[in-house]
């Protein structure tokens, strides 16, 4: 029997329950209740907005757009409705219309940090992108000024400050905010990431170790991790390779992707992303950030900037790592950042050649066997699912052992989240630095 949801208290209770379902990714459960609520209370903008958000989450963009626009007819400057309208228009392929809606949202409310982030995600202009990233950081910081702040919001703040390239501010806020001292996994991860990006690698490892111990004591299986599907990864690899080629950039297979193609004819089944290399040109190019920022369907990570040596993104559910290689005498250097001590690999310089794998031609280093031995050691032909290049590669150069330990622990946490305890144990064992205890005072 359908419950009576017409009373004021009842409809508020059902609306709160629907919002909880939405926050937990269950728009399918929220929709029937929201439709009944809308029938009983057709003029309630909160119900209309929540229904529109649920429709958008399920990919039903046309009725979602109609719901957002019905709110805007009565409230033209409603920030959430403007943001929702922009999301619908972007999903429909109308980027100029979406940008207009997002810009109107932040003009209506400069504290609308989600709308700032949406501008950053789709604007073709780098100056507006950086301005929006900084605007998002400022806006979410204002929402965290109260003493009682949910851990997830403080984690959002840390992420926004890291994306704005002010991680030291994130470290300072998380160290001093009363609500940030909880042993919450989101906060532990935020503190570890902030310290790492601020260059305090030993302290980042100590915080990562706390996160790891939290996961071992209280497992948190995470169903949000998408499985790595080799056939889809190959399709994404072809798409990104074509995107770069159309921009005049030659790319080549590297790291685990080259290992999989050269040894098995395709991506490794246990891999976590695809790895693509490009060479730095004498004029400082290529502008990978610009190519990705203006490509339809690609979301450039907000932390990325022109001139970076690494670009990591998700595309069609597949992780994509693009590494820019710099020539240094007889060597090639590539890595995550230019920060001293960060992950960096050094290889003997190589040219490129074509090779045929899986019925297709690919560009690879001229001597793939030498490259793979430098990357993985002489036993590269034997599978090792617990190996991580950022932790154990013989090619690591001028990399802090604390950084290698940090990546060992953070990837072990990811393995625990997918219930792969064997891989987690192998990663912890590979760390060059013992797991710090809670009372360890980090020193570099």
Structural notes for this entry:
The structure is a single chain. This protein has 19 helices and eight strands. It is 54% helix and 11% strand. Strands 1, 2, 3, 4, 5 and 6 form a six-stranded mixed beta sheet that branches. Among the domains are: 136 residues, Alpha Horseshoe (Serine Threonine Protein Phosphatase 5, Tetratricopeptide repeat), CATH 1.25.40.10; 169 residues, Beta Polymerase, domain 2 (2-Layer Sandwich). Helix 3 packs antiparallel against helix 4 and helix 9 runs parallel beside helix 11. The longest helix is centred in the N-terminal third of the chain and has 18 residues. It is globular, with a radius of gyration of 24 Å. The N terminus is likely disordered. It has 444 residues and is of the alpha+beta class.
Q: Would you report the number of β strands?
A: 8
- End-to-end separation in angstroms reads 65 Å
Which structural class fits the helix and strand makeup? alpha+beta
Q: What does the largest sheet look like?
A: 6 strands, mixed
Regions with little confidence, pLDDT below 50 for 5+ residues: 1-7
CATH-derived architecture of the domain at 230-398 = 2-Layer Sandwich
Order of helices and strands: HHHHHHHHHHHHHEHEHEEEEEEHHHH
Short description:
The protein has helices at 8-23, 27-40, 45-57, 61-74, 79-91, 95-108, 113-122, 126-143, 151-163, 167-176, 185-197, 201-217, 230-246, 255-264, 288-293, 368-376, 389-392, 401-417, 421-430; strands at 252-253, 274-279, 310-315, 318-328, 331-335, 344-348, 352-357, 360-365.
